[in-house]
Write a structure and sequence with these properties.
Layout: H1 5-15, E1 19-22, E2 27-28, E3 31-32, E4 45-48, E5 51-59, E6 67-76, E7 82-89, H2 102-112, E8 119-122, H3 129-144, H4 151-161, H5 169-185
Parallel strand pairs: 1-7, 1-8
Antiparallel strand pairs: 2-3, 4-5, 5-6, 6-7
């Protein structure tokens, strides 16, 4: 996993996202799930090839224990710094689902506050949790546009580009529950 960190930051610099959503932790169940690809402590700086990444601030919203946000400054010598918010989901188990969809809705709402920008989303493999949150965002966009929604069609389209997305029945049900929470909260 560590061998891909430089590539990750090269891609990040190229695409210049405003947000990264990390749906796993570095270790889960005592097993490595993701490389530590960013500085973990406030004011810490790390260099990955030509990309320099600084952790400016880490916050855990008081009313929300599902995720914390890390403010990062990312730069390459001679280029303007880009500011990225890294949303670290803290309690979404691999092959499982969170108890509520409200955490996902909060993260997606914050990401949506930066329209017309690239968002990087990842979990440990890139299909289960990642597929579920991407499907949710697409479904929410369809609902916000006032169009008819067919969740299965959305998942089929995602799977045509990323096989195995929304990997388990529990994730499929969780997606529906989250959408219902969204509709009921309106």
């Amino acid at each position: 996993m560590d061998t891909t960190i430089n590539d990750f930051w090269r891609m990040t610099w190229q695409e210049k996202p405003r947000s990264i959503i990390m749906l796993c932790t570095v270790t889960e169940g005592g097993k490595p799930k993701c490389a530590q690809y960013f500085p973990g402590k406030t004011n810490e700086t790390k260099q990955f090839s030509k990309v320099v990444v600084q952790n400016v601030r880490t916050t855990s919203p008081a009313s929300e224990t599902v995720f914390e946000s890390v403010q990062l400054n990312v730069c390459v010598t001679g280029e303007p710094t880009i500011k990225i918010t890294l949303f670290k989901w803290l309690d979404w188990p691999d092959f499982g689902v969170p108890a509520s969809g409200m955490g996902m809705l909060r993260i997606l709402r914050q990401v949506r506050d930066c329209p017309n920008t690239t968002v990087i989303v990842h979990c440990s493999v890139g299909i289960s949790r990642t597929g579920t949150i991407v499907a949710c965002e697409i479904c929410l966009k369809i609902l916000l546009e006032g169009k008819n929604l067919n969740v299965l069609d959305v998942i089929k389209e995602i799977r045509s580009q990323r096989a195995g997305a929304v990997q388990t029945e529990a994730q499929y049900v969780y997606l529906h529950k989250t959408l219902l929470e969204y509709i009921n909260a309106k």
